[in-house]
Amino acid sequence: MKVEVVLTEADILQELTEAIEARDLPEKYFYCFPSSAAEWTALTRDTEVYGGLRETWNQLAAGAPALAQYFGKRVPLISFGSGDGSRDRMLMSALKDAGCECTYFPVDASISLLETACAGAEDDDIEGTGIKADISSPVHLVYAADAAEPPRLFVMSGNTLGAFDPLAEIRYVSQCMKPGDRLIIDGEAYDEQKTIARRANPASRRFVWTLLSNLGIRPDDGDVRFEHKRDDRHDGLHLITRHFHAARDLSLLVGGHETALARGERLGLNFVYCYTDDAFRWLLCEHGGLDIITSRTSSDGRFFTAICKK
Ligand SMILES: C[S@@+](CC[C@H](N)C(=O)[O-])C[C@H]1O[C@@H](n2cnc3c(N)ncnc32)[C@H](O)[C@@H]1O
């Protein structure tokens, strides 16, 4: 499978340097180092992390005959923030069994994860093109969406939406959709007791510390702290932020560029949105302009997954 590069490694390194200067590291940097991508892959196997979402995808795969009937012989699957593509492959394999020929377009900023997604599809004899792009950019999203003619099946899974401003991101995704397209998208339910605790577990901590160690930060240089905020733009939107708090003066090194981080300073890390059921529906429908065709909540109540149309 070939890979088209819209976001280069040089762009990522330049933006990472600027993000460190600005003390704010968005989601995409957490996967861009090969060691981070490997840690992420290990993390997704931890049942604590994605809980009942695996079962939801088994159910989606079981519903593949209905999707196959809708799409007919061909289904282009475009996955925004595909990761290693394992969820996409579950569905594509079921679609194939239902008589559809899938073409696959995983879209991700992480070259390591994109390579894994492409290699996995190749193993399954599925053709397509990996697209290395920034899914927070509306221009990159439209470019990736145009990889295939409608009707297309878009996927945004693993609470990928929640790592961006979901109000902006869902509109960008919606703008890419044409009548006939379908979108499978999920969001994580907010739980006052468990949402932060799950992110503070050893496996999730290892994932965060892998990025920090790639920047030259060691565990005794400080600690990672979490905060919960409500997003006042709509009831039921919960934002979990995390930051690294420096316990001593540090010097961070990326691509030969050194940045001083003084004792007591904070380095903002990636954040995640979680929702109430109503807020997630509002986000997709009223705010994003989508119609929900079907939706399900995972058996552990952690994830809402919807199949939507424009
Ligand atoms: C939470 S993981 C979900 C992966 C996969 N969809 C799943 O269900 O397991 C988010 C994925 O989005 C990618 N990602 C994060 N920010 C991105 C960005 N700005 N542009 C492109 N990909 C991004 C990451 O590299 C990662 O693979």
Description:
The protein folds into two domains: 2-31 and 47-190 and 277-309, Rossmann fold, CATH 3.40.50; 195-274, no CATH class. Helix content is 40%, strand content 28%. It contains 13 helices and 14 strands. Strands 1-4-3-2-5-6-14-13 form an eight-stranded mixed sheet, with helices on both faces. Strands 7, 8, 11 and 12 form a four-stranded antiparallel sheet that branches. The chain has a two-stranded antiparallel ribbon with strand order 9-10. Bound molecules: S-adenosylmethionine. S-adenosylmethionine (SAM) binds at residues 27-28, 31, 44, 81-83, 87, 108-110, 113, 134-136, 157-158, 160, 163. S-adenosylmethionine binds next to loops.
N- to C-terminal distance: 30 Å
Cofactors and ligands present? S-adenosylmethionine
| Mean of residue pLDDT values | 95
The main pleated sheet reads as: 8 strands, mixed
Q: Which CATH class of the largest domain applies here?
A: Alpha Beta
| Helix percentage range | 25-40%
Query: Architecture of the largest domain, CATH level 2?
Result: 3-Layer(aba) Sandwich
The total strand number stands at 14
| Fourth-tier CATH superfamily name of the largest domain | Vaccinia Virus protein VP39
What sort of overall outline do the alpha carbons produce when their principal axes are compared?
Answer: globular
In the CATH hierarchy, the third-tier topology of the largest domain is known as Rossmann fold
Structural class by helix and strand composition: alpha/beta
The structural domain count equals 2
Which assembly state applies to the chains in this document?
single chain
Rg, please? 19 Å
Order of strands side by side in the largest beta sheet?
1-4-3-2-5-6-14-13
| SSE arrangement, N to C | EHHHHHHEHEHEHEHEHHEEEEEEHEE
The total of helices stands at 13
Which stretches are poorly predicted, pLDDT < 50 over at least 5 residues? Answer: none
